[in-house]
Amino acid sequence: MSSHHTGPLPERRDRGAISYFFWAFAVTAAGLILGGWLGWAGSRTVEGTLTIFFICAVLAVLEISLSFDNAIVNANKLKDMSPVWQRRFLTWGILIAVFGMRIVFPLLIVVVAADIGPVEAIRLAASEPEAYARIMHEAHLSIAAFGGTFLMMVGLGFFFDHEKDIHWVRWLEERIARYASVKGIEIALVLGVVMAISQLHGGDKGHSFLVSAIWGLITFLAVEVLGGILDRNEAMKTGAQGGLGAFLYLEVLDASFSFDGVIGAFALSQNLFVIAIGLGIGAMYVRSMTIMLVEKGTLSQYRYLEHGAFYAITILAVIMFLQSFVEIPEVITGLGGALLIGVALWSSIRWNRAAAG
Predict the structure, then answer these.
(1) Domain boundaries in the chain?
(2) Which UniProt keywords are listed (predicted)?
(3) What is the pTM assigned to this prediction?
(4) Which of 44, 70, 102, 176 has its CA 20 to 30 A from that of 252?
């Protein structure tokens, strides 16, 4: 890969950390004002206004805490993309992430699960939020199976890599690396886990889980294959690493990350528009973090940061599978991921100090 593909705006590496979050702060202010207005329009009381305002703020914090690992994985993929595709992802990609995944995706779930038209789904979200939330809740098993399978493939793909030579949890990662050259080992492991869980559910639930998980696996493999073909063709035409395949991969990855947040959000509010505001604010911080990580070369400065993110992804996949049996609060998921990344950062700083000394 050519060395000049290190960031969308390499000449701005000296920017202060806060400057990266200008648009995130602007969207936060606009979103919270809009949330307050929605609260006032719906209740005409100060209490109702403050409640919606508070829910928007909590959802934004929830999305940010769930998205540290998403930003790190985005940056990991972006640093190898051409500057043109980096910019496309950070503009179009984030629009798709905010509007597509936080607004269109919950509507699509209801369209498929309830077998109704998109217009009817929007009407249901606006006028019958309880019924809308119930349909979303009933679709939770399938979403957990699909998202969990996709994310588990992403997580295991990082560890089962024969070229990976930096190990954080050495005793575990070195053992995994020994089997990295075995073809299809991640697929076999994931299928084994999926089969076991579907057997535990049994009946219609087990069948539903298995079918959704298989679709998650097929989606992951299809994105990998399509991404490889697209980027290979682009590289042959332009003589440079492309980005369309990686762009698609990142969009599907973001979708899988947002499953958890979107479903969890319904525990706090049944109003689709309130959820979209809260999660949309969070998504802007993911974009800001991603740009900062790429431009400042943070991933190369802190050698275990990626490891922490991929451990968090693998654990999130396990949690999504467990959520098909029991409810696990989003706070645990968010804080768990953030804690892992924090420990990875601390380990990286310690390593840097030892290396410098």
Answers:
(1) 16-356
(2) Membrane, Transmembrane, Transmembrane helix
(3) 0.77
(4) 176
